[in-house]
Amino acid sequence: MALLTVHHWSDLEAGIGELLRIARRRIVVLTFDQDVSRGFWLLDEYLPEAAAVEDTRAVPVERLAALLGGARIETVPVPHDCTDGFLAAFWRRPEAYLDPEVRAGISLLAQTGDEILQPGLDRLSDDLGSGRWHRRHADLLDREALDAGYRLLVADL
User: Fold this and answer.
1) pLDDT above 90: percentage of residues in the chain
2) Burial level of 37, CB count in 10 A (0-12/13-18/19+)?
3) pLDDT per residue as tens digits for the range 102-142
């Protein structure tokens, strides 16, 4: 099992090879589809510089599925009350992204650095204070879950 990690691997093929070597019946990889996650409001509207960083290391899910020998790909919706702390976990609680402790637990934001993120975070803070974020994203406030691009790849061996 590999959870939100393959985009950090320096040698993807070797890592997948090791999963294939040690697994007995099944390999499960939780990752993200960058084409979908780039549309997540935080990245799209406030932190496009962070999305650009993610573009350099994202692994296309179709490539991962092929490397795993034809894994099936399943969408993993993020519930509105998710507490795990990964990037889109707070999609309906935007104020959380202003908390440095929350950002420190999200690899993309922690590795991008506050000097790059700060202008977008300031815009988010202003939009939250003025109510603009809530008006712009009123459709999200009643949703129970969001497809932010997370994908589960399951390869039965």
Assistant:
1) 98
2) buried
3) 999 999 999 998 899 999 999 999 999 999 999 999 999 99
For residue 151, give the nearest of 24, 21, 19, 62 by alpha carbon. 62
Which two tokens mark 40? Answer: 């997540």
CA of residue 5 relative to chain centroid, distance: 11
Which tokens is 23 given?
């697994």
Residue 113's pLDDT is what?
A: 84
Cα separation, 90 vs 98, in Å, equals 11
Query: E strands within 78-143?
Result: 78-79
Mean pLDDT confidence for 72-87:
97
Q: In terms of residue numbers, what domain contains 112? A: 2-156
**Which amino acid makes up residue 16?**
I
Mean pLDDT to the nearest integer, 32-54:
96
| CATH code assigned at 103 | 3.40.50.150
Q: How many Cβ atoms sit within 10 Å of the Cβ of residue 92?
A: 20
Number of domains in the chain: 1
